[in-house]
Specification:
- There is one protein chain.
- The chain is mostly helical.
- The protein has one domain.
- It has 12 helices and no strands.
- Helix 4 runs antiparallel to helix 5, helix 5 runs antiparallel to helix 11 and helix 8 runs antiparallel to helix 9.
């Protein structure tokens, strides 16, 4: 029955797409889209603004300058999910024996899927309107914040040593990670809403400072292990690899290379942001492998059930606070766009329209 209903809904979607002439229009040069949608040194491949929502969904199979950004994270989400389901993180112990908590690792995987799916939605649908652009990237920042706290959970429960947890960072680690995750989301929403293209360097600084502080805190249990004497085991080598991949991805996120030196030649393939997406996906995949190794390495009974529950409940709290921040930023931007347009065409693109065609 459920399969039949899903088939009927899919058939209805396809018939509506044909009825509304919702075949995506061909991509256009940068001069034919508002400045908000233009990327530095990317001269063509932009999807026209104002098409039906289904056009942007169907543009998943169209060649444009966001195609690679969408597919890299879409495929990464599928690969991460398949890897997680391929085998249990650790073998089952004797009945009744205490074991490591599985919830933090599952929440880490869920947080990674969250940021990947939010990124896919933002890059796939953002060309619908200026309001949709802002709201979808605010949602993208929510996904990144959720992933930040998911990484903190994984590092605390599987990647940390007992000596580090007993030290000063231990008790404040997860609450601090939750706070910095929200601050990162709030800073990104503010910077996106406040500054206009061409973006000044202050915008990048505003977004990178809280994210950098969050990264230093989240990485502190791993840095403690990396700095300890003794050879690096398989898990630690994987952690070192995912940290190197992340730092390299930040370089491509911050600098528009190689398109800066090849304007117009990287419009479809080779953009710095595409390299950033690939490196970040590899980082997440390597991080999962490292946490799986750590999960098998950790001894049972290191954490109490109450401690695990408190830590896991912080994740929906972080997600809720970030989502509320994004909604408030979207409402503020909607009012601002209405005021700038004098209640003209933008008045038709209400906040409710972000969720319907």
């Amino acid at each position: 029955m459920a399969v039949s209903g899903a088939r009927q809904r899919f058939t209805h979607f396809l018939s509506e797409a044909k009825r509304c002439r919702s075949r995506p229009r061909p991509p256009v040069p940068a001069s034919q889209v508002p400045i908000l949608f233009r990327e530095p040194y990317i001269l063509s491949g932009y999807r026209p603004v104002g098409q039906a929502w289904s056009c942007y969904v169907l543009s998943l199979f169209q060649r444009h300058n966001e195609s690679v950004n969408v597919w890299t994270h879409l495929l990464a989400a599928a690969a991460l999910l398949l890897r997680w389901g391929a085998e249990p993180p650790w073998p089952a112990g004797p009945p009744g024996a205490p074991g490591l908590p599985e919830q933090p690792l599952g929440l880490y995987v869920g947080s990674a899927l969250c940021y990947l799916c939010c990124s896919v939605a933002a890059h796939l649908l953002q060309s619908r309107s200026e309001l949709a652009h802002y709201c979808l990237f605010f949602l993208d920042y929510v996904g990144v914040a959720v992933y930040q706290y998911g990484c903190a959970l994984g590092h605390y429960f599987y990647g940390s040593e007992a000596a580090w947890r007993a030290g000063p960072p231990g008790p404040a680690f997860l609450p601090g990670a939750a706070l910095l995750a929200w601050l990162s989301c709030a800073a990104c929403c503010f910077a996106k809403s406040y500054w206009r293209r061409p973006y000044p360097p202050a915008r990048r600084v505003c977004t990178l400072i809280p994210a950098g502080l969050a990264y230093l805190l989240i990485s502190s249990p791993l840095l403690h292990r990396l700095g300890a004497a003794g050879p690096w085991g398989p898990g630690l080598r994987l952690h070192a690899a995912h940290m190197a991949l992340f730092l390299l991805s930040v370089l491509f996120f911050s600098c528009p290379v190689p398109e800066r030196f090849l304007p117009g030649r990287c419009d479809f393939l080779g953009q710095g942001h595409q390299v950033f997406h690939v490196l970040l996906a590899l980082c997440s995949f390597t991080q999962l492998e490292a946490l799986l190794v750590d999960a098998r390495r950790q001894g049972p009974g290191a954490f109490g059930e109450e401690e695990v529950l408190r830590a896991c409940l912080l994740l929906p709290l972080v997600a809720g606070c970030c989502l509320l921040t994004a909604l408030l930023a979207g409402r503020h931007k909607h009012r601002q766009l209405l005021a700038e347009s004098g209640g003209g065409r933008l008045g038709e693109l209400s906040l409710a329209e972000v969720t319907r065609d």
